């Protein structure tokens, strides 16, 4: 038994390392395949006026004069020593940048998921409680709105209306971390979390509805009802409890995506998260910033998947038993 | 009460409290802390990509650095060259020597004195290829720099260069302290400007503090300026509406109109930058001047302006700087003339039409694709087919820099002096001539005359001839210049927008 578990752990670790290596190669190659480099990204068309000697000096400065293989393995080797690279634009190491941006994104992702669950699960349960009824239609409309309203539209509208009508725009102020000013931080996070949460609530609502409908038709529900289990207890304990696995899967997936940074929403609400870090890195062609940050995001995604797997064991005794 | 309902109420209450907290605090003034009320918050869409003035080309970087560093000369609000760190200058009779007298008592941010050795060192470094300074070509006429005494600098020139004093006003030729390195200045800028760096949070904000030792007669009105990074222009307008940001410069005409409708104060300033259809006269059918003239006659520039930029701008000729401005009516076809276009195509033996590979940048500036589509539609009526290649900005820059196009829809930067704007493009030895795709002995001579002439009226006449030559040969198709929009909230006074987009007058701005 112990050997079996050890084998599973080893397999999991090996597949994680393999995934991360694949991501590293892919992002490295893709970045080089994109036209332009850090010199043209910084100077734009002004780069056309550089003399060969100036160009050479700049290539040396940005490390672009090294062969690609050397660049790749130097970067990879440095990762093992905790050196994720350096951002000349920010005059900070990528590790420092990530240590600032990742917690912001994690906070935003958690808040968004909480809001999405608060919207999606009750509405999904309600919709499933009487399929085809007006309450089901209402749930479907909310779900359709969540899926079809683009986040940039919702975000811009929310920001414009609240600023113009109520003078209410915490995101117009300098960003505050929870340690600096927890209340302002919460204020600055609530609107982007609401926009993201609304979008994510839709698939959660649909998954909840489908899962609940499926479980409701199971024999044990009928038996429980026949035995006189109160309806609320039946819905929550027996139905929702058994419908949790697909909901957890969907939530885990969405959470993983959120950890990749919600670039558009972060841009509109000026939230200095990891999405903005990658975007600015791409715009400036700061290879080290993009490569290392994407790798951190990939790692976060893998960890969330692991966590989701672990959660199955908690919410579903059948998984534990198997 | 059931537990579920209780927790729902709890969550709702928490949200309400949070939102109430938001509304109660959002009305507070932008400046907080000890400098409250005297900090001017300027909204910018990006963080500076460098703090090293000799390599800065990005809009935010140039504007932040302009407030930290000093230059030998400066521009006034009308783009006339006025004294900066040099309080006077004199050109020798043969035009081969420029002697600058430096201002006394100037210090760098770190307290060290500024003198002629710093000027010599700075200019020598800029001219050295290894520095990779972007404005090195502006000093191409400088043979050597000497510092005979602490307050005098002499520039020996290869020939007369009337544009040099104007060229010295760019922040890319800022004066640095002797021995300063890029690495040091990237974290601790040390200039002679009206402000010094107080703090920076990467990708979020940069705060400058007033430099009380600055040499100007009128010290800056605000104690600090915070450049707050809000990546989206619409979000900056929202932040102005809620009182969190007090000044910004907008580029997108649509956002500017929204801001105006929302009651934000707006000033339109015509730009030196110009929108143009660049033609590569060294390639294929465009080598024939008649094909180029046919293109020029087939375009209604006002229509391009109206459809692509909501009419926000003015039709211009090649030179946009106020003192040397070209008259757009003085071109072979000031109004669209399809019959004449057909005639020119006939002369070129291309009555059946021509096809041009045209590159367009997506994302570089707001109106590019709309301009390209309108040009394509108009030219199609004259049997000129623009084959549009809409490219991501990196790919566009690569193609543009390699001059790999027949035509390019472009937004090019203009400069106050026409030699600075076009000498590098249209002289045969200019470092952008390959991209410009055209040169001629006549233009070489005119640009050389322009540099050798110091009398302003005579220079204007020379650059009128340059302008006429460019238009008569339809070297490029100049379209229009847009506006920049300075948006301010009530209480902001004293800011003077400039045609070159400079924010140097932040030093005269008060935050109310």
Element layout with pairings:
The complex is a heterodimer of chains A (322) and B (512).
Chain A: H1 2-33, H2 38-43, H3 52-62, H4 68-79, E1 86-87, E2 92-93, H5 94-129, H6 134-148, H7 151-166, H8 182-216, H9 219-226, H10 231-259, H11 263-268, H12 274-283, H13 287-315, H14 317-321
Antiparallel strand pairs in A: 1-2
Chain B: H1 3-25, E1 39-44, H2 59-66, E2 73-75, E3 81-83, E4 86-91, E5 97-102, H3 116-127, E6 142-149, E7 152-157, H4 164-167, H5 182-187, E8 195-201, E9 205-210, E10 224-229, H6 233-241, E11 247-250, H7 253-261, E12 265-270, E13 274-279, H8 289-297, H9 301-309, E14 313-315, H10 338-347, E15 354-362, H11 368-380, E16 384-392, H12 393-401, E17 407-412, H13 418-426, H14 433-436, H15 441-452, H16 456-472, E18 476-488
Parallel strand pairs in B: 1-10, 1-11, 15-16, 15-17
Antiparallel strand pairs in B: 2-3, 4-5, 5-7, 6-7, 8-9, 9-10, 11-18, 12-18, 13-17, 13-18, 14-18
Helix pairs in contact in B: 8-10, 9-11, 15-16
Could you explain the architecture of this structure?
- The complex is a heterodimer of chains A (322) and B (512).
- Chain A is an all-alpha fold and 322 residues long.
- Chain A has helices at 2-33, 38-43, 52-62, 68-79, 94-129, 134-148, 151-166, 182-216, 219-226, 231-259, 263-268, 274-283, 287-315, 317-321; strands at 86-87, 92-93.
- The mean pLDDT of chain A is 89.
- Chain B is α+β, with helices and mostly antiparallel strands and 512 residues long.
- Helices cover 32% and strands 22% of the residues of chain B.
- Chain B contains 16 helices and 18 strands.
- Chain B has helices at 3-25, 59-66, 116-127, 164-167, 182-187, 233-241, 253-261, 289-297, 301-309, 338-347, 368-380, 393-401, 418-426, 433-436, 441-452, 456-472; strands at residues 39-44, 73-75, 81-83, 86-91, 97-102, 142-149, 152-157, 195-201, 205-210, 224-229, 247-250, 265-270, 274-279, 313-315, 354-362, 384-392, 407-412, 476-488.
- In chain B, the strands form three sheets. In chain B, strands 1, 8, 9, 10, 11, 12, 13, 14, 15, 16, 17 and 18 form a twelve-stranded mixed beta sheet that branches.
- In chain B, helix 8 runs antiparallel to helix 10 (338-347), helix 9 (301-309) runs antiparallel to helix 11 and helix 15 packs antiparallel against helix 16 (456-472).
- Chain B is globular.
- The interface between A and B is large, with 62 and 71 residues.
């Amino acid at each position: 038994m112990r050997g079996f578990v050890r084998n599973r752990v080893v397999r999991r670790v090996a597949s994680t390392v393999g995934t991360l290596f694949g991501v590293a190669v892919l992002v490295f190659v893709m970045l080089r395949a994109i036209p332009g480099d850090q010199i043209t990204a910084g100077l734009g068309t002004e780069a056309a006026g550089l003399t060969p000697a100036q160009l050479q000096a700049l290539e040396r400065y940005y490390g672009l004069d090294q062969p690609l293989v050397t660049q790749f393995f130097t970067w990879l080797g440095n990762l093992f020593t905790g050196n994720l690279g350096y951002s000349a634009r920010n005059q900070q190491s990528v590790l420092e940048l990530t240590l600032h941006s990742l917690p912001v994104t994690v906070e935003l992702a958690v808040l968004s998921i909480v809001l999405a669950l608060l919207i999606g699960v009750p509405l999904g349960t309600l919709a499933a409680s009487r399929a085809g009824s007006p309450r089901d239609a209402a749930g479907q409309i909310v779900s359709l709105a969540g899926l079809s309203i683009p986040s940039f539209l919702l975000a811009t509208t929310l920001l414009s209306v609240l600023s113009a009508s109520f003078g209410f725009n915490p995101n117009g102020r300098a960003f505050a971390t929870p340690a600096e000013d927890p209340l302002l931080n919460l204020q600055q996070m609530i609107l982007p979390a609401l926009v993201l949460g609304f979008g994510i609530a839709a698939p959660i609502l649909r998954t909840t509805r489908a899962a609940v409908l499926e479980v409701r038709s199971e024999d044990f529900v009928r038996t429980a009802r026949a035995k006189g289990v109160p309806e609320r207890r039946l819905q929550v304990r027996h139905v929702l409890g058994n419908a949790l696995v697909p909901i957890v899967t969907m939530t885990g997936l969405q959470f993983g995506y959120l950890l990749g940074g919600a670039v558009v929403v972060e841009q509109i609400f000026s939230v200095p998260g990891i999405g903005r870090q990658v975007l600015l890195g791409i715009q400036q062609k700061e290879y080290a910033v993009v490569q290392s940050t994407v790798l951190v995001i990939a790692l976060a995604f893998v960890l969330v998947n692991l966590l989701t797997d672990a959660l199955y064991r908690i919410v579903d005794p059948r998984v534990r038993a198997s | 009460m059931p537990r579920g309902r209780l927790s729902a109420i709890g969550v709702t209450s928490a949200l309400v409290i949070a939102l109430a907290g938001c509304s109660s605090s959002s009305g507070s003034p932008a400046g907080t802390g000890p400098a409250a009320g005297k900090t001017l918050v300027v909204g910018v869409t990006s963080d500076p990509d460098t703090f090293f003035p000799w390599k800065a080309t990005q809009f935010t970087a140039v504007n932040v650095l302009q407030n930290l560093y000093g230059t030998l000369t400066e521009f006034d609000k009308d783009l006339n060259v006025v004294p900066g760190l040099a309080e006077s200058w004199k050109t020798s009779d043969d035009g081969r020597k420029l002697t600058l007298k430096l201002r006394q008592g100037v210090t760098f941010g770190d307290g060290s004195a500024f003198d002629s050795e710093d000027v010599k060192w700075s200019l020598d470094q800029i001219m050295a290829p290894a520095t990779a300074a972007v404005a090195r070509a502006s000093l191409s006429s400088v043979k050597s720099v000497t510092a005979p005494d602490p307050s005098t600098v002499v520039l020996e020139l290869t020939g007369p260069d009337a544009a040099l004093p104007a060229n010295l006003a760019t922040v890319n030729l800022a004066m640095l302290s002797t021995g300063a390195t890029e690495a040091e200045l990237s974290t601790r800028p040390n200039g002679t400007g009206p402000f010094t760096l107080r703090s920076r949070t990467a990708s979020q904000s940069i705060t400058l503090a007033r430099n009380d030792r600055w040499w100007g007669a009128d010290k800056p009105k605000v104690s600090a300026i915070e450049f707050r990074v809000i990546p989206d222009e619409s979000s900056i307008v929202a932040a102005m509406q809620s009182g969190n940001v007090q000044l910004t410069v907008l580029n997108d005409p649509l956002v500017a109109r929204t801001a105006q409708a929302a009651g934000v104060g707006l000033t339109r300033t015509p730009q030196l930058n110009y929108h143009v259809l660049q033609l590569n006269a060294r390639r294929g059918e465009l080598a024939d001047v008649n094909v180029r003239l046919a293109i020029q006659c087939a375009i209604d520039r006002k229509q391009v302006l109206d459809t692509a930029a909501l009419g926000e701008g003015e039709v211009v000729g090649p030179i946009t700087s106020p003192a040397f401005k070209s008259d757009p009516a003085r071109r072979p076809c000031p109004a669209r003339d399809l019959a004449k276009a057909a005639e020119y195509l006939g002369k070129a033996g291309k009555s059946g039409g021509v096809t041009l590979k045209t590159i367009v940048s997506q994302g570089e500036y707001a109106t590019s694709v709309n301009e390209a589509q309108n040009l394509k539609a108009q030219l199609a009526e004259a049997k000129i087919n623009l084959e549009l290649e809409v490219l991501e900005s990196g790919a566009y820059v690569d193609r543009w820099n390699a001059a790999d196009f027949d035509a390019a829809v472009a937004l090019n930067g203009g400069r106050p002096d026409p030699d600075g704007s076009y000498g590098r493009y249209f002289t045969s030895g200019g470092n952008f001539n390959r991209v410009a795709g055209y040169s001629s002995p006549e233009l070489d001579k005119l640009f050389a005359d322009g540099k050798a002439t110091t009398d302003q009226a005579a220079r204007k006449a020379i650059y009128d001839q340059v302008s006429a030559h460019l238009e008569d040969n339809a070297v490029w198709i100049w379209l229009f210049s847009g506006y920049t929009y300075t948006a301010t909230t009530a209480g902001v006074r004293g800011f003077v927008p400039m045609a070159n987009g400079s924010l140097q007058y932040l030093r005269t701005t008060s935050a109310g």
